[in-house]
Amino acid sequence: MQAKVRQRLRLRYAKDDVLMYIGQRDLLRYVIKLLRRSEIPFAVSGGFSPKPRLTFGPALPLGVQADNELLDVELSADLEWSAAEVAAARDRLADVSAPRDFVRELSACPTGAQPVNQLIAGARYRLVYGGDPAPVLAALNSDTPLAYNFKGKPRDLRQTISVVRGGQDMIEIDGAARPDENLNIIQLGRSLAELTGMKPLLHRRLALLDTDGAPL
User: Fold this and answer.
1) Residues in a beta bridge with 33
2) Nearest-angstrom CA–CA distance, 53 and 215
């Protein structure tokens, strides 16, 4: 007997100046609490230790704000929500997450659509400074190594950066967002501060990118 394909909802959410200080495990607990309070019946795995069937995008380091994070919520097998029911669920989620501006959008994934974690190849970040970021841009465009140790192994941040843009008091960077090659924006800010003396005032992830570099 073929298993029923469950409907998935895709949540677009933000991490503000408060939520940016909770890690991925606490974010999972927070989302589960919101789903329960808004009466969205998410599916759970089987076995002795059932877990919610939620699919997140790449985790954010502590201290990074975000505007357009993505999360897939798999619904119970016997549900097939209409557009109106999804819109009502979105409103309930927004209500229970107040005063945080957490919920940006909730939509139904087309049947057979890839999970969100299989769509993401990169991410766009913004580093905000208190002045002209020209020294930072110069450091990024130079050949100076941006190396650091990760769990005892050397890594080169340059290998995870694809595009750099600058303007006024900020720079924007497109970088990898994969478990095996992920741009650590906090470490990048620290490395650039060591080279230039300019410390970022704000780290923000603006968007998640597909394989063509377009925002999802």
Assistant:
1) none
2) 25
CATH number of 119-209: 3.30.70
Summarised one tens digit per residue, pLDDT across range 132-151 is 999 999 999 888 888 877 77
Strands 202-209 and 65-74, by their bridges, are: parallel
HSE at residue 89, side-chain half, CA atoms within 13 A, is: 22
- The single-letter DSSP state of residue 74 is E
In a 3-state reduction of DSSP, which class is residue 20?
helix
User: pTM (2 decimals)?
Assistant: 0.91
The domains of the chain are located at: 8-111, 119-209
Fold of the domain built from segment(s) 8-111: Alpha-Beta Plaits (3.30.70)
CA–CA separation, 6 vs 161, rounded Å? 37
Under a CB-based contact definition with an 8 Å cutoff, are residues 20 and 63 in contact?
A: yes
